Amino acid sequence: MINGLIILCAYLIGSIPSGLWIGKIFYNTDIREHGSGNLGATNTFRTLGKKAGIVVTVMDVLKGTAAVLLVTLPVFSDTTLHSLLLGLVAVIGHMFPIFANFRGGKAVATSAGVLLGYSWPLFVLLFITFIVTLKITKIVSLTSMIAALVALIYAIVYYFITGDFALGILVAFLFTFIVYRHRANIARIKNGTEPKVKWL
Prior knowledge:
single chain, 71% helix
């Protein structure tokens, strides 16, 4: 009972469509009808601007962190589930949100939030990697996949040092999700038509 309830909570947290709600409430705009049609932070930046993009990014990150930290709440103290499993569920909720007809984002920010809640040093490493790579390439999709690859390498090395198998499994799933969700972007990168950011 407790395990089912906490999984449901993690999914609902992940399902919060930050970009959709911020766009509709404050800008009277459905970002699904603009840009890439995606509900993630990148399309929010592109459609609504820098301020809205930052707010949505922070909200999406915190969704992942909140899901991981659910196990610290007294009401869920009896759960036998690993916190990273809840983070994974939140990421799935972000990609397929019940509050937005199961059309969500590409999982980058929420995945980062999961790592923030579980291993903040890894989050800091990925944040630096993301900013530096984005500054160089100006391509968010490429930067996101590179950061995911760095996370995967870190998790593999970390496993051999500490034996943390759960982190390795989670990051492998997140890497797969992120690359798969960016398959159209990969095609555009190859043919040179992927949009570049102008705000960094």
